[in-house]
Design a protein that fits this description.
Keywords: Transferase. Helices cover 24% and strands 35% of the residues. The protein has eight helices and 15 strands. The longest helix is centred in the last third of the chain and has 17 residues, at 275-291. The protein is globular and about 65 Å long.
């Protein structure tokens, strides 16, 4: 008999095994491992509740919901982020996924929740099962495509000497600058010292005024993306790059069944949309990835993001996903603000 309950720290090993067994199919098949602690990444997401489905002593499914505080129209709103929705291959088509979603919906109702967010691979319509059979709740809406840009690590001195990029502490000035910038986005988390305590912060100044702040985070100790399958042409490109990576001072790229060592640009806030400034910051981040022997540095942006046109266009791979949002209270005004605005989500924690 399948039972449902809250997860505890004692479930860690079984949750790691379940996560490892649940890859994402497609032309580029991926698996996201969470060694050594399944719960550690959740701490970056916010206060997180984890539910599991059990068959006897075995965990056969799980789902997480994280409580976040985000900007909408420069005001603070609670948002619930749903993640890690997995069912063991041996127990699919038994209604476990539906019952896990029922459990989450009941929890959201106790929290008087309104906005709920999901991130899914493009073309995946499974999130609609959350509310498709509940007449008093609307369905999730597609709020647009998020593109993850993975830049290959590269050893290169900054050619633009105009910008001096310096390591910084998480001062009140830096946090205020980040919040001023990200308040223009919809669904961006309010940034606190806790949000950036695990990041490396870099600041660019001009006449003692902050021009830009970049926060880099290394999540390899919390999650590991593993490529299970890739198209033949991509295998060829990677093999070619790896042959000449030392000559061109590029990072070595992973093969199938190897973890992708990657840094994330968690935040990139700028005072003006200066392409040279953005390029300098991305080049600096690529250098940091190379120094750590990491393959990539990654940044994720929504299709409406003003930064898109300022990013360097070379030596990068791209992956697309879709943001799904619902207002359980059918608040059309909030949904319209998000859809007309410029959404942001922190993909280092996804």
């Amino acid at each position: 008999m399948i039972k449902y309950r809250l997860a505890t720290s004692k479930d860690n090993q079984q949750l790691l095994e379940l996560t490892r067994s649940a890859g994402m199919p497609g032309k580029m098949a991926l698996r996201i491992d969470r060694y050594p602690d399944f719960f550690k990444l959740n701490k970056l997401r916010g206060a997180t509740t984890v539910y599991v489905a059990t068959d006897g002593a075995n965990i056969v499914g799980c789902i997480c919901v994280s409580d976040q505080n985000v900007y909408i129209n420069k005001q603070h709103y609670p948002l619930y982020y749903i993640s890690d929705f997995k069912v063991s291959k041996t127990h699919r088509h038994l209604g476990i996924g539906l019952e896990l979603t029922n459990t989450v919906v009941k929890y959201l109702e106790t929290q008087n929740a309104d906005l709920v967010f999901l991130n899914v691979a493009k073309g995946n319509k499974r999130p609609f099962v959350f509310f498709s059979d509940r007449g008093h709740y609307p369905d999730f809406q597609n709020i647009g495509t998020f593109t993850t840009f993975q830049y290959i690590g590269k050893k290169k001195k900054l050619s633009n000497k105009k910008y001096k990029i310096e390591l910084s502490r998480a001062t009140s000035e830096v946090i205020e600058f980040l919040n001023d910038y990200y308040s223009q986005y919809e669904l961006a988390s309010i940034i606190t010292n806790d949000k950036i305590k695990d990041t490396d912060l870099y600041v660019v100044r001009e006449q003692n005024q902050i021009l830009a702040v970049m926060a880099l985070i290394d999540t390899m100790e919390m999650k590991q993306n593993v490529v299970l399958k890739m198209p033949w042409h991509l295998k060829g490109i990677i093999a070619f790059i790896n042959v000449f990576c030392q000559l061109f001072k590029l990072s070595k790229l992973p093969k199938e069944n190897e973890p992708i060592k990657m840094l994330y640009v968690r935040y990139l806030a700028i005072k003006v949309y200066d392409k040279a400034l953005v390029s300098a910051l991305i080049s600096f981040a690529k250098q940091q990835a190379y120094n750590k022997s990491y393959a990539f540095v990654s940044i994720s942006l929504h299709e409406n993001d003003n930064l898109l046109q300022k990013l360097p266009k070379f030596m990068r791979f791209t992956f697309n996903s879709v943001g799904m949002l619902v207002s359980m209270k059918d608040n059309n005004k909030l949904m319209e603000m998000v859809n007309k605005g410029m959404p942001f989500r922190d993909y280092s924690t996804i």
